[in-house]
Amino acid sequence: MAFYGDVLPGDEFKPNAMLSNDVRHFINSLNGFAAHRFTANGAGTVRIQIYNALENSLEAGTAVNFDESSEMAGDALPAKLLTDPKKPWGVITQKLKAKEMGDCYISGPVTVSVTGSGDFAQPTAGSPATFTRGAEGAPVLFAYGSKAVINLGAGTPEHYDGPFALTYDAEKKKLIVKAGYLSRNGEFLLVAEKELEPATGSVCVTTTLDANGAWSTPDIVFGSPGTFFYPVGSCKVEGSGDTQNVSVCSYRVPVAIFIVTAICDETN
Please, which residues have CB within 8 angstroms of residue 189's CB and are 6 or more apart in sequence? Predict the structure, then answer.
């Protein structure tokens, strides 16, 4: 159930449908009617108490970080709009005015606004109130239209972060391939990180050998695996615009190895 603040003397009071329904579900449960939203709504959910440390309101369903530059208010942590999804974050359960106190989900099923498609969803610094669906984030348990129920804290499958690891940056709308290592006929080199426009196909490290025996500068491109195209991952793009879904797979390549031989001209 949601958190409901007290009605103080002199406050303008308006009936609240959610409060009315939650009271009905609670009373029904006391009367032995166990199959109700109240039980399922709170099952497995972990919340903490927070307060809005900003000067502006925060909307329900918004992802927030915890502001370490502000003090706690009792047991309530100071919350601010999410700016770094790699730091601890949660989702607030109701609209909070500046300095207002409320609840924040940190684990379990929670309903959020979403865009795109994919089996997982996560917020970004540029869009803390609308989660982006894709290959990373919290598992999407159910989705319909622009709303989804995600399972906070469940995490994504094991994420590879080694040489040539592929990730999709939903804010930049770019495929990012980390730097990695290359060995070509025994010469060991570092291949620089590369940003690519997302596309469906194989992602390869490439370096070519010309007729004079000179190697080209190594690069990371989309291509067909072959003698001069060593596959390090794949990318799949579905849809376009706001509904575009980009999924990636890293092949866990510690070193891209090129061994090229040719028949020598015996007359030289």
Answer: 181, 182, 183, 218
Q: Does residue 139 form part of some domain?
A: yes
Give the model's confidence band at 35: pLDDT under 50 very low, under 70 low, under 90 confident, else very high. very low
Residue 135: partners with Cβ closer than 8 Å, 6 or more residues away: 118, 119, 120, 156, 168, 246, 247, 248
The answer as to whether 29 is a domain residue is no
Quote the pLDDT of residue 41: 47
Percent of the chain with pLDDT over 90: 47
Number of domains making up the chain? 2
The tokens of 178 are what?
């980390």
Which residue, 121, 152, 183, sits at the end of a domain?
152
As a whole number of angstroms, the distance between CA 94 and CA 161 comes to 36
pTM of the model: 0.54
Q: What is d(CA 205, CA 166) in angstroms, rounded to the nearest whole number?
A: 13
> 132: domain CATH number?
2.40.300.10
